[in-house]
Design brief:
Blueprint lengths: L1 H7 L16 H41 L23 E3 L8 H5 L46 H9 L14 E3 L4 H7 L6 H16 L2 H6 L4 E4 L25 H5 L1 E4 L9 E3 L11 H12 L5 E7 L11 H11 L3 E5 L12 H9 L1 E6 L9 H7 L3 E4 L22 E2 L2 H5 L5 H6 L3 H14 L18 H17 L21 H4 L8
Parallel strand pairs: 1-2, 2-3, 3-4, 4-5, 6-7, 6-8, 8-9, 9-10
């Protein structure tokens, strides 16, 4: 460095001449040398400072290009102190036609599905719930009339609060696409041709595939939320050729991780996450307070069912009618029957539903229009143990959010036992020892945070909600893609895990019965 500085000095200092010095010339020369000596240190200092400043500029500029300034090395790993290492998410800045414009037209759907404007208010949570006379939710924070298909907006707004967002896609572990696929389904569902149904999805595919972020991994590091069942986005596989969009069958949908409320289980890219419930806590304290409340509940009903019959379902799988019939015939079963009409409010009134679930030990969850139900998660929030009749109702669906030990939190009674062998649901449940019931109840209560979505306008500190669990699942899936591993959302519905079809009754020999 000093050599380069010195080599430039002759351009500033006048060289000595070979001629003999004239009188007085020696004095002038000494004066010039003295002046040069005074000038030299500042020039050297300024030159060195300029080189150092330029080096720092290049360092910070290159660091910003790669996603931020690296932290000091600790133990040889420059990223060891970064809590977001491997968790950064880049959010595409989509044109508003893919999200905001869709929900801005919420009243357009009123001739098909009813006015959706209330449902998308409050960051997607819907209208706040007023207290009820029985204090089911009175005084508790975070209760809203949330629509079961509002997850597109809820998840997007939660993502805005995610602690590891980055503006630099090169360092992102995953890329979020805030396309409101579920709301797009609603606005063009009835009376439109397939080209109209798929218009937004085709448009999105073209937009994404033109982006450099997509080309990096062919979209396998991208994910979006389609807040309905997977069957609503796989029209080409549906029995009804005009039902839904074909998002999951298009190239973009096949490559991305798509979060749905129920997977089609066709070894695809659709991964199931819980339905939204009515409870959206704003703090850890809200969650803990609610868990304590349901733990103390006195449960007067052995079992309960909330829902409507499904007469249009084929007889060979119509277990719901049998469940309703057994519930009505039992003095130990509470039932909240619903009418399948747009004007019916019995089963869309949260107070009615949560009141029954909080007073019940076992909540019966037979399949309805599809294998899964929102009611599963509403009942778990109330501390009620779910009873399943089909393995695709939960066990094959929510692997990120529910334990692999299915009988630790639920009861399984094969639907064939109920339909064909007339097995008594009440007898099966009464055969479970009370100590086992208490353990299952505690496990359900422990799982509450994992099946609820916190208020997007606030932030939980230590409690992980369904959003947090889903994001971890996405990041793990993308990491496996990046390693070249094969990943899909699960096996076919006809393939059942071993031993699950052994009747629950045989797992718990009769001892002390529950009252």
């Amino acid at each position: 460095m000093q050599h380069r500085v010195a080599s430039s000095i002759p351009q500033v200092i006048c060289p000595r001449t070979k001629s003999a010095p004239t009188k007085g010339g020696g004095a002038r020369l000494k004066g010039m040398e003295k002046a040069a000596a005074n000038v030299l240190p500042p020039l050297r200092f300024l030159s060195v400072l300029a080189v150092i400043s330029w080096s720092f500029f290049l360092y910070f500029y290159c660091s910003m290009l790669t996603g931020g300034v690296q932290l000091p090395s600790h133990g040889g790993d420059v990223d060891s102190a970064d809590p977001c290492r491997g968790r950064y998410i880049y959010v595409h800045d989509l044109p508003p036609r893919f999200n905001a414009d869709i929900i801005r037209d919420c009243r357009v759907t009123e001739d098909h599905w009813g006015d959706m404007c209330d449902s998308v208010s409050n960051a997607g949570l819907g209208l706040p719930l007023a207290g009820d006379p029985d204090s089911v939710i009175t005084g508790e924070a975070g209760w809203y009339g949330t629509h079961q298909f509002a997850l597109d907006a809820i998840f997007h707004n939660r993502m805005k609060q995610y602690e590891c967002l980055t503006n630099h896609s090169a360092v992102a572990a995953a890329v979020f696409v805030p396309f409101y696929a579920g709301f797009d389904f609603v606005r063009y569902h009835w009376g439109y041709d397939n080209a109209t149904l798929d218009a937004a999805t085709v448009d999105l595919t073209a937009w994404l595939m033109a982006r450099p972020e997509w080309r990096r991994m062919g979209g396998r590091d991208h994910f979006l939320v389609a807040g309905r069942t997977g069957w609503d986005f796989r029209r080409s596989n549906n029995a009804n050729p005009s039902w839904g969009t074909d998002l999951l069958a298009m190239p973009a949908g096949q490559n991305m991780t798509v979060l749905v409320l129920e997977s089609t289980l066709l070894h695809g890219s659709d991964y199931p996450v819980p339905y939204p419930t009515y409870f959206h806590p704003r703090s850890d304290a809200d969650v803990l307070r609610w868990q304590d409340r349901v733990r103390r509940q006195e449960r007067k009903w052995l079992m309960a069912f909330v829902g409507a019959p499904r007469p249009d379902v084929p007889m060979n799988i119509r277990v719901r009618d049998h469940v309703i019939a057994q519930c009505k015939a039992s003095r130990a079963c509470g039932v909240l029957e619903c009418a399948r009409s747009l004007g019916s409010t019995q089963c869309v009134t949260p107070g009615n539903i949560m009141r029954l679930f909080q007073k019940t030990t076992f909540c019966l969850q037979p399949p309805g229009d599809s294998c899964t139900r929102r009611s599963v998660f509403d009942s778990m929030v109330a501390g009620c143990i779910p009873v399943f009749f089909h393995t695709a109702s939960a066990y094959k669906q929510y692997r990120w959010h529910l334990p692999s030990d299915h009988l630790s939190y639920s009861v399984y009674i094969p639907d064939a036992d109920v339909r064909e062998r007339n097995v008594s649901i009440e007898a099966v449940l009464r055969a479970i020892p009370q100590a086992t019931v208490r353990r299952m109840q505690e496990e359900v209560i422990r799982l509450i945070p994992a099946v609820i979505y916190a208020d997007p306008r606030s932030k939980l500190e230590t409690v992980k909600d369904a959003f947090d669990v889903a994001v971890e699942g996405v990041l793990d899936t993308v990491a496996k893609h990046r390693k070249g591993e094969y990943v899909d959302s699960g096996g076919a519905i006809s393939e059942d895990p071993p031993d699950l079809f052994a009747s629950t009754a045989s797992r718990f020999p009769p001892r002390r019965s529950m009252r």
